[in-house]
Amino acid sequence: MREIAEVIVDVPVLQTNIPFEFKIPKELKADIEIGMRVIVPFGRGSRHVQGFITAIKEEAEFQGKLKEIIEIMDLSPVLNSEMIELGEWIARESYSFRIMVYQSMLPAVLRARYEKVVRMIEAEKDASLLELFEGNESMDWETVEAKNLSAEMLKLRKENKVELEYIVEDNVTKKTKKIIKRAMSIDELEMAKEKINSRAHRQRQLIERLIKLDENEVVDLKRLRTEDELSTAVVQRGENEGWCEIQEVEVYRNPYEASKYEQTEKLVLNKEQKKAYEKITESVAEKEDKVFLLEGVTGSGKTEVYMQSIADVLVQGEGALVLVPEIALTPQMVHRFKGRFGEQVAVLHSGLSDGEKYDEWRKIENNEAKVVVGARSSVFAPLDKIGLIVIDEEHENSYKQSESPRYHARDVAIKRAKYHNCPVLLGSATPSLESRARADKGVYQLLKLKERVHNRPMPPVEIVDMREEMRSGNTSIFSELLQDALKDRLAKGEQSVLMLNRRGYSSFFMCRDCGFVLDCPNCDISQTLHRDSQSMKCHYCGHQEAIPTACPVCKSKRIRYVGTGTQKVEEELKELLAEARIIRMDVDTTSRKGAHERLLDRFGNHEADILLGTQMIAKGLDFPKVTFVGVLNADTSLNLPDFRAAENTFQLLTQVSGRAGRGSIEGEVVVQSHNPQHYAIQYAKDHDYESFYQREMTYRHLSDYSPYYYLTSIRVSHENELIAAKRIQQLKEFIKPCLSKQAIILGPTPAMIARTHNKYHYQLLIKYKHEPRLNECLHAVLLNTQKEQAQGLMIRIDPEPNQFL
Q1: Residue 36, CB-side half-sphere exposure with 13 Å CA sphere
Q2: What's the distance, CA 647 to chain centroid?
């Protein structure tokens, strides 16, 4: 008997990983299934919350009276059994709550919205209450806040005169369109046409259009209006007369409707590509959950190996999941997969609207799409049978979620692969040290592509010492060598890419007289000048204010804008090369929907000579006419207080260098640096991943960092610095007895940026190899701090962190 449902409820202030039991009403027993969303009563009064059914059973363990499920929100489960189990595993491994994991697995439109309403309790109605509520039974919380009645309502609630009610609203909307079909036979329509007044031209035209339709053929109402110039009124008249029938049908929103994709055929693989492809397809055929690491230099044809492996998977009737970093999920990448696999491809990324994401998700769920290409959260795509999972640019930090639930897409992909008995293919020109170390130990299988396709040479890289440039009298952002290279490419009609690791105009505002720097009022960080919006902005909390015309402290007009941003570089480029056509790509110029694609299309059509941008231009771009790449400030990421700083710098320089010389013309790279002898820059110059890997592993071993040690960070945040500092020390004392003597605890210390969003941050870092009691101990921390979090104290536990700022 299906009597009891276990439900993980959505209660933000009292989250738990333990499901609650609810009675299944008689009328729902036949329809209710595991994985459905339901609305259930929770807590005092008439509070309603959303939840996910994780189990259905015969008897309850709870001895008291159970509440009943109020309503089912879905016609079929939105989470299958795999996702239910996966969510439980992620919550355990990432110190998160299952409800947050399940919500992360779904499109935004499937996450319920809550409307908060204050309602009078029937027995307590009196004249003063009726006056306060203006004769209404209830008042929504927005009105309460607008009228400054929050304190009054809380007081009335304590007196049991009002109750707080949460109304659950479903955000799901499906796109529909109107279609027209014939409602009469051709003979009947001919007879109807004879009876129409000869001056009713549009009615006669409608009948003639209907006669041309086959028996079950339909035509869009929109097409009738635009192509046949038939008004809605005419079509409505046709339906009233019985000539046609108007129907409303559901359609998918198609973000790529306007794009045309030229069908491509598979290319001939070279010896290295073929060897890798055969190893992968052998594992696919044998249903092995192996992990392959495909280490291939930039331009070595990794994507072609992916696509040919996927083609074999599709032949077997299975699907493939392809993860690409958001920054590299360019229109070019979409074109490649759509061109090869057509309508079988669904694409999921942040540039789509919520409705478009929902429709792509439904295509996957309905088995209408077999190849999913998307960013980090696409790892949860509801593919029924997975034959291969590909993670491109596997070293990218963006695969690790920075907010709760803090999962790594690589770990989730490997977990899903075990469930589906399929291989995982990790691809990169510069694998993360962790992945390469696992390959060396035999945990992953290493496959190498050492040569570019068609034996094209790697571009030569020149390092320019900007200190020497300054000594020789060049105070420009651009070295002499870089200026000459840009002018040369411009004269030849070739294209150049320039990368700067900073958006905005300048780094910060400084008074030359008193030294004042304009900091963000909410964060311990300086604001950045943005010329296009004529404002100073904080890139951490979003604070924005007008550009000061004088120093706020000493009133001096001697103001200096220190540093260089993409906007400033663009201005100086225009002064240096007045005839050059420049496209700037950064967060500011690509924030509008479709802007990313439009800018790249213009550059691909050679409507610009120079593409200037931040990290987003370092990956996923393949333009044959790009023969020169310039890196303006190689040291930016090198100087960060992060043990991965050298690795991140080497990866970025190698990736951006790989944009040059991908066509028939050889490329060239110039890297500007104030620290040109650093080993990360020198090895990037030589495209020498092996030497960099060996040297960096030595340093990691000496300093007890990953991949020799696992890491977990704990951060405490509060508006009061003393409270944050005291609580992090208490947590250290609580955790210490759970650890062996081999574990290392660093801290507590203030975070690198000690205050953001008006909160002070203190952190601990735990380094360990094997600590069986740590997981349980940290989950105890998570549960024990629930009440504190409601009071403004935030505690964040981050396994394998990749951000230390």
Answers
A1: 20
A2: 23
Instruction: Please state, in angstroms and as integers, the Cα–Cα distance from residue 108 to each residue in 71, 75, 171, 355, 412, following that order.
Output: 20, 18, 8, 9, 20
Q: What is the pLDDT of residues 457-492, one digit of tens each?
A: 899 999 999 999 999 999 888 999 999 999 999 999
Which range (3-17, 73-87, 684-698) has the least confidence? 3-17
Residue 677 has a CB neighbour count (10 Å cut-off) of 9
The count of residues in the chain is: 805
Q: Is 301 exposed, middle or buried (0-12, 13-18, 19+ CB in 10 A)?
A: buried
Q: What is the mean pLDDT of residues 217-234?
A: 90
What pLDDT, on the 0 to 100 scale, is given for residue 564? 67
How far is residue 461's CA from residue 470's CA, in Å, rounded to a whole number?
A: 21
Integer Cα distance of 69 and 51 in angstroms = 10
Q: Other CB atoms closer than 10 Å to residue 627's CB: what's the count? A: 24
CA distance 40 to 72: 9
Q: Which of 293, 578, 300 is nearest to 444 (CA)?
A: 293
The string over 486-514, giving b where at least 16 C-beta atoms fall within 10 Å of a residue's C-beta and e elsewhere, is: beebbeeebbbbbbbbbbbbbbbbbbeee
Q: How many CB atoms lie within 10 A of CB 532?
A: 12
803 Ramachandran zone, left/alpha/beta (phi>0; psi -120 to 50):
beta
Q: What pTM was computed for the model?
A: 0.83
Q: Which two tokens stand for residue 61?
A: 């363990």
Question: Cα torsion at 397, 399, 404, 407 (round to 10°)?
Answer: -120
CB count in 10 Å sphere of residue 531: 16
Residues 594 and 130: their CA atoms lie apart, in Å, by 51
Helix (H) or strand (E) holding 165: strand 162-169
Q: Cβ(497)–Cβ(627) under 8 Å?
A: no
Nearest CA-CA partner of 331 in 593, 585, 601: 601
Task: State how far the Cα of 310 lies from the Cα of 307, in Å rounded to an integer.
Answer: 5
Q: Is 709 helix (H, G, I), strand (E, B) or coil?
A: coil
Q: Which H/E stretch holds residue 482?
A: helix 480-492
Per residue in 605-644, pLDDT (tens digit) is 999 999 998 887 877 677 889 999 999 988 878 877 789 9
Q: Contact, 494 vs 726, CB < 8 A?
A: no
Tokens describing residue 214: 């086959």
The pLDDT tens digits for 35-62 are: 999 989 987 666 788 899 999 999 888 8
Contacts of 145 (CB under 8 A, 6+ apart): none
* Number of C-beta neighbours around residue 419 at 10 A: 14
Query: What is the structure's pLDDT at 658?
Result: 86
Could you say which DSSP state residue 215 is in? T
Q: What are phi and psi of 746, to 5 degrees?
A: -105, 130
Say which residues have a Cβ less than 8 Å from residue 401's Cβ, sequence separation at least 6.
104, 376, 407, 408, 409
User: Rounded to the nearest 5°, which phi and psi values hold at 793?
Assistant: -90, 120
Widest CA span in the chain: 98
Question: Which residues have a Cβ under 8 Å from the Cβ of 326 and sit 6 or more positions away?
Answer: 349, 350, 375, 376, 398
Please work out, in degrees rounded to the nearest 5, the angle formed at the alpha carbon of residue 334 by the alpha carbons of 329 and 337.
125
pLDDT at 693 over 80: yes
The tokens describing 348, both together, are 């999921």
Q: Are residues 322 and 392 in contact, defined by beta-carbon separation less than 8 angstroms?
A: yes
